[in-house]
Specification:
The protein has 161 residues and is an alpha+beta fold. It folds into 2 domains: 124 residues, no CATH class; 36 residues. The chain is 20% helix and 35% strand. It has 3 helices and 8 strands, in the order βαβββββββαα. The strands form 2 sheets. Strands 2, 3, 4, 5, 6 and 7 form a 6-stranded mixed β-sheet that branches. Strands 1-8 form a two-stranded antiparallel sheet. A hairpin with a 2-residue loop joins strand 3 and strand 4. The protein is elongated, with a radius of gyration of 23 Å. The model has no long low-confidence stretch (mean pLDDT 87). The structure holds zinc ion (ZN) (2 copies). The site of one zinc ion has 6 residues, from loops.
């Protein structure tokens, strides 16, 4: 938890955050990794603002070929912090409890909202052969995939009728 008491009572103008969140493998497609958050919390005449960046260092799986690769696209962090909500402001605000905020939780939420839901190792990744399972980026197995597709179409037509 990040204590904001000094910020709220005016004895500090800003509080800096530099923290590593361990074990970010809670999302689909992520094998393992951490995220470093660098941010500053400031008190703008009573409006508490958290601003900074999350730098992920993740090992992810390609959704097409299954290869593991590194992902480190930074995520911008910007949120207002309050101790109580007015009506339907939930999305814009982070709620503090006992004048503190949970940085781990904020980073996890940001990753859930902002990180891709599937990762592709490269834009033109050819994926795996649906017949023999080989990596089509590495070799052309020569399987006749169109043949398989047409047979499935016949079955599909059969069931449609
Ligand atoms: Zn791939
Ligand atoms: Zn094949």
């Amino acid at each position: 938890m990040l204590d904001l008491k000094k910020l709220l009572d005016g004895s500090k103008d800003s509080v800096t955050v530099s923290q590593t969140v361990e074990d970010c493998s809670f999302l689909d497609g992520i094998d393992c990794g951490t995220a470093v958050v660098e941010a500053v919390v400031t008190n703008h005449s009573g409006v508490i603002v958290l601003e900074g960046e999350i730098k992920p260092a993740l090992t992810v799986f390609c959704a097409r070929c299954g290869k593991q690769f590194g992902y480190s696209e930074p995520i911008k962090l910007f949120a207002k912090i309050t101790d109580k909500l007015a009506n339907d402001d939930e999305d814009e605000f982070i709620i503090m409890e006992n004048f503190a905020i949970d940085i781990d939780e904020i980073v996890r939420s940001a990753l859930i909202l902002e990180a891709p839901t599937r990762y592709i190792c490269k834009e033109d990744c050819k994926g795996l052969c649906p017949k023999c399972g080989c990596d089509l980026n590495l070799r052309d197995c020569g399987c006749d995939v169109s043949d398989r597709d047409s047979r499935w179409d016949v079955l599909k037509d059969f069931f449609d009728e």
